[in-house]
Design brief:
This protein is an alpha/beta fold. It has two domains: 159 residues, Alpha-Beta Horseshoe (Leucine-rich repeat, LRR (right-handed beta-alpha superhelix)), CATH 3.80.10.10; 36 residues. The strands form three sheets. A six-stranded mixed beta sheet has the order 1-2-3-5-7-8, with no helix packed on it. A two-stranded parallel ribbon has the order 4-6. The longest helix is centred in the C-terminal third of the chain and has 53 residues. The chain is elongated, with a radius of gyration of 34 Å. It comes from Sylvia borin. This is Leucine-rich repeat-containing protein 3. It holds the Pfam family LRR_8. It is found in: Membrane. InterPro entries: Leu-rich_rpt, Leu-rich_rpt_typical-subtyp, LRR_dom_sf, LRR_TM_domain-containing, LRRNT.
Length: 235
Amino acid sequence: QAFFCLLLCIPWGSSCPPSCQCTERAGAKAVLCSSRHLEEIPKDIPRDVVFLKLDANSITRIPGNAFRYLSHLEEIDLSRNAIEKIDGAAFRGVAAGLRSLDLSGNRIRSIPKEALLALNAKLRLANNPWHCECALQEVLWEARLDLDSVRDITCHTAPREEYVGKPLLQVLDAGANLCGGPRQRTTDVAMLVTMFAWFAMVVVYVVCYVRHNREDSCRHGHYLRALPSAQAHAE
């Protein structure tokens, strides 16, 4: 009975993962799990955590709803792991309050844009083997990237060989548009065809209008020339 009473007296969700250290930082709970050989995100993280450090581990993926119940979370450090896959709903539940997210130094080649664009957090994405594509371009333009790390987002692979090995920011500054794929080109062609059709219609209308006016002028001229002859015949 004393044991069960003790369990009931412990606040639910306030335990600390066995491989981590829980402490206070500026009056807020911090969970420190750095360099603990973790291969996945711990399941028993306290719900009132504000700062979460999971850096320098062997985590390979961030599943959907990984932090869903950590509503007080403001900072997540996932740098220097082996992350390759991030689910589109990985940060659901913490998007509103998260202020900092560090994903640098992983193995991330691509990421669903919905996973990051919903965040207000400052992002660090440097030193990953990125495949430079449309989703990454949209993240660069629309997300809140840490300015000090933007230059280190490099194209490990890319649709065009000349982009490989270059910083993504340099590629985009040179005028490249990674979202200008076949669909965009098809749209451009359709717009050109439509504009040409309208132009042709205007030309045809002008030609018909001029021709019609010329015919009216000719008929009116014939009428005027015939008028004196008709009057002389009448006299």
